[in-house]
Specification:
The complex is a heterotrimer of chains A (about 240), B (about 45) and C (about 230). By secondary structure, chain B is an all-alpha fold. Chain B contains 1 helix and no strands. The chains are: A mainly alpha (about 240), B mainly alpha (about 45), C mainly alpha (about 230).
Chain lengths: ~240, ~45, ~230
């Protein structure tokens, strides 16, 4: 393992431990929800990480269409998968917080509904890639769909907000940040940094996996078409 | 389930999902590395 | 230099649209299938929920738009799949027309087909569930138009995407329905505002529909070349 990789992993682990300690022990106990409220720190943090990931997908999709460089395609799919992971974490920790506090696991309030649709959008993106075979087509068409999905995101939020102000439902997460105690604010910030850190580490690994996959596919193609070693050296990487 | 049990479960869920995913990615990387080495040797033999 | 030999987008679109319409009206198979399918969904609603008249007013808009979304997802596929089967897409690509003209021609054709189907379904719905449409027909047509426009813009683009993938019949709804969630909300709410005791078209939602259509039409225009790539 490369030295820099080990160092970054250790930094990530340290951040996680500090954030965890702060979230579980240092942050003040909340008046009504007590211990369970502490879920809020890594629940909201995972959604912040999710947005970072999905923004990366958007940027990668646009860059790919402009340059046709497969590296951007690799980044796009990696960020999408990692984003779906963060979203899944958010969607599972949410009900675990909701049940003890509100008595129900789920409600169709604006934020949860929008995030659920987001989850489905990027799962659709990943499924689309799985069903396209030609690598060039896969990259181009999924980039087009990815851009449409990213453009849809704000529309999903606005429509759900408008809808829920017309037909109010119990707001399950409260206004996060509404009158936050400063220690709680710092804990949230540290948790966000920690989870984003973990997400970035996982993202890099996933990206490496994708690059290796492309390399393997190329080598396989060469092996099956019977090219010589000299041709491998001269072959471009498109 | 008490409040603490929900908190604990949520904590476990977060790290289990991240960890599980990371392990699966790492395993696939290791497998691919082996396959790539194998293919490279095959091509050099030609 | 090149533009001299290229047809203008408007003219190309008109010709392609004419071709699509003529093709469809020869057999009318797509249109009849779409109408029948939407009818089935509308009728099944009464079996599944047995709504009272006031319930029909409340849930009718949502039902109608779900029926249109489902019917749309099924009917948009044959649009590109037909081309794929006969390899006519290559011929289109070679012609001196912009990719946007090809896309726009199909979008408008799909829009016309869907609107046609809706003009059949909505009166049938109003008769079956005793929902009066008196006095709101004009505004209802506007909402149907804006909503269906959004459906066909995104649907045509995604059918071009899924036409090149496996399992395209399942893939298209999978891609389309999540993206259209905001449209479904906006269209259903706008329609619901017209089914009230005192119908009053909800301007906010109509503005949202217009915004939705503009965003995705612009995106289609910017990205159309990538869709039609070899």
């Amino acid at each position: 393992m490369k030295a820099s990789r080990v160092i970054w992993t250790l930094i990530g682990a340290a951040l996680v431990l500090c954030a965890g300690y702060m979230a579980l022990f240092i942050a003040p106990d909340e008046a009504t929800m007590h211990a369970v409220q502490r879920i809020f720190y890594f629940h909201v943090a995972s959604w912040i990480a999710m947005y970072c990931a999905f923004t990366t997908v958007f940027v990668a999709n646009v860059r790919y269409l402009l340059s046709h460089d497969r590296k951007w395609d690799a980044l796009g799919v990696s960020a999408a998968e990692v984003g779906v992971i963060c979203c899944t974490i958010g969607l599972t920790t949410g009900p675990l917080w909701a049940k003890p506090v509100w008595g129900i696991y789920w409600t169709w309030d604006a934020r949860l509904t929008s995030t659920f649709i987001l989850w489905m959008l990027y799962i659709a993106y990943l499924l689309l890639r799985g069903l396209l075979e030609d690598p060039e087509k896969k990259a181009t068409l999924s980039a087009v769909f990815g851009i449409f999905a990213s453009l849809d995101m704000p529309l999903v939020y606005v429509s759900n907000r408008l809808w829920r102000t017309q037909h109010p439902q119990p707001v399950i997460l409260g206004g996060s940040g509404s009158g936050l105690n400063p220690v709680m604010g710092k804990t949230l910030l540290l948790s966000a940094i920690a989870i984003i850190g973990v997400m970035v580490l996982v993202l890099f690994d996933r990206y490496r996996l994708e690059v290796l996959r492309n390399e393997y596919a190329e080598l396989k193609f060469l092996a099956e078409s019977g090219s010589t070693n000299a041709e491998i050296a001269g072959r471009d990487t498109r | 389930m008490t409040n603490f049990q929900f908190l604990f479960t949520a904590w476990i869920v977060v790290w289990a999902i991240f960890f599980g995913y990371e392990l699966s990615v790492a395993a696939r990387i290791a497998g691919l590395r082996k396959d790539i080495e194998q293919l490279k040797r095959q091509l050099e033999e030609k | 230099m090149f533009s001299a030999s290229r047809m203008s987008t408007a003219r190309a679109t008109a010709i392609l649209l004419g071709k699509e319409l003529r093709l469809e009206f020869r057999t009318r198979e797509l249109l009849s299938a779409t109408i029948v399918f939407s009818l089935v969904v509308v009728v099944l609603f009464s079996f599944a929920f047995d709504p009272s008249p006031s319930e029909a007013r409340r849930f009718g808009p949502g039902l109608l738009w779900i029926a249109f979304l489902f019917a749309g997802s099924l009917m948009l596929n044959p649009s590109f799949a037909r081309e794929q089967a006969n390899d006519t897409l290559d011929g289109l690509r070679l012609a001196p027309v912009s990719s946007f003209a090809i896309l726009l021609g199909k979008m408008l054709a799909n829009l016309i087909f869907m609107l046609f189907a809706e003009c059949v379904i909505v009166p049938v719905f109003s008769v079956l569930y005793n929902v009066s449409l008196a006095g709101v027909v004009g505004r209802l047509v506007l909402v149907l138009f804006l909503g269906t426009l959004g459906l066909t813009i995104t649907g045509t683009v995604f059918s071009a995407v899924s036409a090149q993938a496996r399992m395209r019949e399942l893939l298209l709804p999978l891609l389309l329905l999540p993206v259209l969630a905001p449209l479904l909300i906006a269209a259903a709410e706008s329609t619901a505002s017209l089914f009230l005791e005192q119908p009053a078209l909800d301007r906010t939602w109509v503005a949202f529909l217009v915004g939705f259509d503009i965003v995705f039409m612009t995106a289609s225009w910017l990205l159309c070349d990538y869709l039609m790539e070899e």
